[in-house]
Specification:
CATH class: Mainly Beta
CATH superfamily: TonB-dependent receptor, beta-barrel domain
CATH topology: Maltoporin, Chain A
Strand content: over 45%
Largest sheet: 22 strands, antiparallel, barrel
């Protein structure tokens, strides 16, 4: 796989030859030399003396995260210009289960690999999850975040198609540090707070032990509490409808003319509480042997709230040939006069918004544990080599509940037994409420085991320098499960039916890298990886990178790579799942914009394949001291993508008479959507490209230290499954703005700093009809003061001008897309840090 052309074959042979020759030379020669400190760079296993590589990497420090008032990793990442789409997070109220994810380039959270200290993090959430829940990583433990913005499957394996987010934790800490952070809106809601403590000490025998604890809480913001919120309009109303008709004050059945505003029950910012414990240790066992490890445990308690459950039941009509003669409803003369009649199956639909029972409250209680231990040593070979043997374990388990769920079977029986109570539109009695409502309970989890070994160092010297290498092997096993409530499994709830998920797979991997200085100016970086999965079989990926240092001011760089994403547990072993998607029924049979679709998985699904290419430059002009610029062109192409078909296109094609589309999506020719199915297949594609630009400038003026940083992403193209999403926004897919820009300006004195940030999201077109969606510009201001060496504090304002989000016609919530725009409004935040 991924080796079908001559270029790929040539690259493989070149890498293999380089490593083989180097290994032979290293065994034949031992060179004694001074030890040089080396560092790990995200995107490579080779230990290096500097950060200069062919791959573009963005580094975000803990100080920057704190200065902008972020209390969760997802909030910080989603403001980066390299993000797009609509990754779920704190503003996702419908269907997120409290999870927060990252979505590089808008290519999907499952295509961005998340590492913790250079090693994989277990997928986490409510069970059998496809990506890492960033809520499991507290901001308090972060030293920096490194974002690798090119494909890295040849180095890290599956999931790194769009890039890698590597979260580096605090270590080698000595002393005690106490942090208190908080924020709230100027409207008196949406409060957040985080309390954390960090303690570390050094030992006389070459060890350091760092321990930390953090507690954070986030309170909710109701959608209707923002004046600009677009009121919701649902055909499910609290008084109920029969055959689409309602009873007026005179007892006549007339056409429904009102809708239900669900924004008064739904969150813009979802509440949560998180408790975290973490530790890092480094212990020298001898001059050439070091033991290190880290452990993280996080408990998350979160909830979302939505409007009371919309209940829809099909009732048999007495006297109809296909109807049940005993359990049925009688259509009286007033109903018949109002146009209420049985359909061809002898039934009539009754719909009700179950306000009597109460709003749907989704609760999650998740526990995530991740531990890693490694033994590292050196070998006296060549100019020195290092080896690393590690074991990483991750486990996530979750219990989730939905309060005030509705049992559809019990509801139908209740209607049959209490027709007057339901059809009158009056509030239901407590006995009926107890009969139709129930507590929905589910559980799930994920588990990961990884054993890995790597040998790296320098093989031999060329005229231009040493040839560096890394070679390693890895065994990984991933498993997951998800058990829906039995009522949901039986399809007896008014919520979507879902089958259980359970499965596991393992993979054995071998990888190798080499860095070759062809000359003083030109360096080549090569990587090759082989993976053998228990599910689909074998995969081979490669990477070639070149850096050319033209002079002290200019470096040119380029990377070409292949990648893959293995199907995850839910894609392989998930049962039928129903989803209510925003679609348009061309037959006009469906009254509600959300149409039920059956999602199916496939145990024989194949891996996705990708190609990526980046080319750019790093420029530090000598005539402007302290300035540096990077400019990079990037392109990612994904084929054989695991995806679902375009359901709207399927509806349209079937309506136009395409019998194959009707059969594939299980739609009848007359538009009956009861069995409407969207299968999971390997037919998807992605093709996206753009330009990243960064300018960083440090200088002194007016007796102050200044720092300017500007990040710009210009999207050239984003196509998926044959559809062009470039510069569009949609409630289902999110936003793919042509221009995203972040600017920061910092001025500092001896004891204080004043910082200004702005974030720009360009104008986009609404995907539905091409109408313009306004651009937005957010302004943030923060001031910090250092009272002494141990005590500092800061205060800031986010969205200083209280810019409202842009209106999106089919927005996922409140007439907009909360995952793209700020729906909370102006926030005031502050922090206090005390270290001793």
């Amino acid at each position: 796989m991924f080796t079908k052309n001559r270029i790929a074959q040539s690259v493989k042979l070149a890498v293999m030859a380089s490593l083989s020759v180097g290994a032979t030379a290293a065994m034949a020669e031992e060179a004694a030399g001074a030890k040089v400190e080396r560092i790990a760079v995200t995107g490579s296993r080779i230990q290096r003396q500097d950060m200069e590589t062919a791959s573009p990497v963005t580094v975000i420090s803990a100080e920057s995260i704190r200065a902008e008032g972020y209390t969760s990793v997802d909030q910080m990442l989603q403001t980066q210009t390299s993000m797009a789409g609509a990754a779920v997070g704190s503003t996702t109220n419908n269907g997120s289960d409290g999870v927060a994810q990252v979505d590089l380039r808008g290519m999907g959270a499952q295509r961005t690999l998340v590492l913790l200290n250079g090693r994989r993090m277990v997928n986490s959430g409510s069970g059998a999850d496809s990506a890492v829940d960033l809520n499991s990583i507290p901001v308090a433990m972060i030293a920096r975040v490194e974002i690798l913005k090119d494909g890295a499957s040849a180095v890290y394996g599956s999931d790194a198609i769009a890039g890698v987010v590597n979260i580096i934790t605090k270590k080698d800490f000595d002393g005690f540090q106490f942090d208190l952070n908080g924020s709230g809106t100027d409207k008196g809601d949406g409060e957040t707070g985080e309390l954390s403590a960090l303690y570390g000490f050094n030992t006389e025998n070459g060890g350091n032990y760092t321990f930390g604890a953090a507690y954070s809480e986030r309170r909710g913001v109701i959608q209707a509490d923002r004046s600009w919120t677009e009121a919701g309009y649902s055909s499910y109303i609290p008084t109920g409808t029969l055959g689409g008709k309602v009873r007026d004050a005179d007892g006549n059945w007339v056409k429904r003319t009102t809708g239900y505003d669900f924004t008064q029950d739904s969150w813009y910012q979802t509440p949560s509480k998180r408790y975290s414990l973490f530790a890092n240790m480094v212990q020298e066992l001898s001059d050439d042997l070091v033991l290190n490890g880290d452990v993280l445990y996080t408990k998350r308690k979160s909830d979302q709230q939505m409007a009371p459950q919309p209940a829809s039941v099909m009732l048999d009509v007495c006297g109809e040939p296909k109807a049940d003669a005993i359990r049925c409803v009688t259509l009286d003369q007033a109903m018949l006069d109002g146009g209420i009649a049985a359909d061809e199956t002898g039934r009539v639909e009754y719909k009700r918004r179950t306000n009597d029972v109460g709003p749907r409250v989704y609760n999650q209680d998740t526990d995530t544990l991740r531990a890693s231990v490694a033994l590292q040593g050196t070998l006296d070979a060549g100019t020195g080599m290092t080896w690393d043997l590690s074991y990483t374990y991750g486990k996530n388990k979750a219990d989730t509940w939905v309060e005030n769920s509705i049992n559809a079977v019990n509801t139908a029986n209740a209607v049959y037994d209490n027709q007057d109570a339901f059809f009158s539109g009056a509030p239901l009695t407590q006995d009926i409420i107890n009969q139709i409502g129930y507590l929905e309970e589910t559980n799930g989890g994920n588990e990961q085991n990884i054993v890995s070994g790597v040998l790296s160092g320098e093989l031999f010297d060329l005229d231009a320098g040493a040839v560096g290498f890394a070679i390693g092997a890895e065994y990984r096993r991933d498993s997951g499960y998800y058990n829906p409530d039995p009522v949901i499994v039986r399809g007896e709830g008014t919520a979507a039916q879902q089958d259980p998920t359970k499965g596991a797979y393992d993979v054995i991997s071998i990888y190798e890298e080499v860095s070759v200085p062809f000359s003083d100016k030109l360096t080549g970086e090569f990587a090759l990886r082989f993976d053998d999965y228990s599910t689909f079989g074998k995969a081979t990926t490669w990477k070639v990178g070149l850096t050319y240092v033209a002079n002290d001011q200019l470096m040119l760089r380029t990377v070409a790579a292949t990648g893959f994403r293995a199907p995850n547990v839910s894609e392989l072993f998930g049962g039928n799942t129903q989803s209510f998607d925003y679609l348009e029924d061309p037959w006009g049979n469906e009254q509600d914009a959300q149409i039920k679709v059956n999602y199916t998985s496939d145990a024989n699904i194949q891996p996705e394949e990708s190609e990526s290419y980046t080319a750019g430059l790093v420029y530090s002009p000598e005539f402007i001291d302290g300035m540096s610029m990077t400019l990079d062109y990037w392109r990612f192409k994904v084929s054989n993508a695991i995806t679902r078909l375009d359901a709207q296109q399927g509806l349209n094609d079937c309506h136009a008479g395409d019998a194959a589309a009707c059969e594939l999506f299980m739609i009848t020719a007359d538009g009956n959507l009861e069995s409407f199915t969207n299968p999971l297949t390997n037919v998807g594609t992605q093709d996206t490209s753009g330009i990243d630009f960064n300018l960083s400038y440090n200088f002194e003026a007016l007796g102050l230290d200044w720092h300017i940083n500007n990040d710009l992403t210009y999207l050239l193209n984003f196509e998926q499954d044959g559809n062009d999403y470039t510069n569009t926004i949609d409630g289902n897919f999110g936003g793919y703005a042509r221009v995203r820009n972040n600017l920061s300006l910092k001025a500092g004195g001896e004891d204080w700093d004043l910082m200004y940030y702005n974030r720009f999201i360009g104008e986009m077109d609404y995907l539905g009809d091409g109408s313009a969606v306004d651009s937005v510009l957010y302004h943030n201001i923060v001031a910090s003061y250092h009272l002494n060496d141990g005590l500092s504090m800061s205060v800031g304002v986010k969205n200083f001008t209280d810019v409202k989000p842009s209106y999106v016609e089919n927005g996922s919530d409140g007439g907009t897309v909360p995952e793209v725009y700020d729906t909370i409004g102006r926030q005031i935040y502050g922090s206090v840090t005390y270290k001793f």
